[in-house]
């Protein structure tokens, strides 16, 4: 059996390795049009920022490695131009010699990845404008940095790559401005969490322009839709990527609703004996079962392994994704898994939303604040999604949440998880458990939450509302919600008679814990409807800045 694989980065090389583990008899050939294979694309921003010392750490394997270890023939600088599914052959071009030839296959695996989107901006094709999708792109950017030594850069887009580059350019002494057409950075996050990310970026010297776009790129600046001119000796277009499906489409493979290649659980396309994997394929979401396209290196490796297994007679099946992702900007980690609040509402869920602010581990051993946003289905209690920002312990929490969602956990189940505790690693009740406690109180125990946006709407509605600031007087006097009255937690019991128990009552503190304690007192004393401000005054002030 002869297996041809098109593409040699994450998906393609994973497929080749698994196919060889399954079969010693198969001939396995990979065609890759670039010069580099099996590299860490996610590590490229950090190499640009000089946080990775050796090039070999990014590109640890070459064609010789795959030949010696796996007996796989890798041909770099070879582009597959056409796939003939009827005669089971491909047309290949040697990009060095220009020679065209055909090669026959028994099984074909398409791993053509994705390409960077270049919006139709005037001046986008100048020599100081780059995208970052490959090692070749990275080397071109590095050459430009070393020869032209730019002092200013504009990054168009605020996805993972753009944000990571903002840190690494800043570390090189470059003044960075990020431009985003949408009303928030990190479009995959909900706006309230994205606000925190933007504030953090700006606190580290990165200028951020949201609700704006680049209209023209000049030699030393860009002109925005708002007509503002921004200095830019270097421009990075990080406005997203799209699945590279042209080869599969021309061969007759069906595309999914997302525009990526449609595959089944075995990575089989609609064409016989043709598989696909990596960033070029459509996935399905574990929570909704609906098609999604979430290009992530982890998923590309996973689907590559499945394609290689099934192409050699295996029976591994793809079980779906949650879109679990994480990135770092300066010292801040940002992670998410499952549905966002926005997505859940668009799908018709009646959502319970919580903002949990807790320390990652014992503060006396270096614990840092985590902000965890949880989204659950109010009707079933099922956990739908989580977003986290913080400087410590974000990665392990998002993985716990992803595992819980994968196995259909309800919000209340989080409290019952038996998680490891010692002061250097966690708190006695882990922040994951606290998230479950907060959401269970909201869904099942009548201890409702109200978000900053909902509170603003309530205050503008004209309805009778008690707003209780349960913090100490000094904090209240420093700043507070406009119509709030200050009733410190320890004085609430003796101040109940001055409040209207029939009106909607909102309690708040700095982060939510004392607000919940005040909420419990009022509910236990017969107040009709008492809501605790999710995330406390900390989150409310973030929304107020908007």
Automatic annotation (TrEMBL):
<dbReference type="InterPro" id="IPR004099">
    <property type="entry name" value="Pyr_nucl-diS_OxRdtase_dimer"/>
</dbReference>
<dbReference type="InterPro" id="IPR016156">
    <property type="entry name" value="FAD/NAD-linked_Rdtase_dimer_sf"/>
</dbReference>
<dbReference type="GO" id="GO:0016491">
    <property type="term" value="F:oxidoreductase activity"/>
</dbReference>
<comment type="similarity">
    <text>Belongs to the class-III pyridine nucleotide-disulfide oxidoreductase family.</text>
</comment>
<protein>
    <submittedName>
        <fullName>FAD-dependent oxidoreductase</fullName>
    </submittedName>
</protein>
<keyword id="KW-0274">FAD</keyword>
<dbReference type="InterPro" id="IPR001763">
    <property type="entry name" value="Rhodanese-like_dom"/>
</dbReference>
<keyword id="KW-0676">Redox-active center</keyword>
<dbReference type="Pfam" id="PF00581">
    <property type="entry name" value="Rhodanese"/>
</dbReference>
<dbReference type="InterPro" id="IPR036188">
    <property type="entry name" value="FAD/NAD-bd_sf"/>
</dbReference>
<keyword id="KW-0560">Oxidoreductase</keyword>
<feature type="domain" description="Rhodanese">
    <location>
        <begin position="461"/>
        <end position="544"/>
    </location>
</feature>
<keyword id="KW-0285">Flavoprotein</keyword>
<dbReference type="InterPro" id="IPR023753">
    <property type="entry name" value="FAD/NAD-binding_dom"/>
</dbReference>
<dbReference type="Pfam" id="PF07992">
    <property type="entry name" value="Pyr_redox_2"/>
</dbReference>
<dbReference type="InterPro" id="IPR050260">
    <property type="entry name" value="FAD-bd_OxRdtase"/>
</dbReference>
<dbReference type="InterPro" id="IPR036873">
    <property type="entry name" value="Rhodanese-like_dom_sf"/>
</dbReference>
<dbReference type="Pfam" id="PF02852">
    <property type="entry name" value="Pyr_redox_dim"/>
</dbReference>
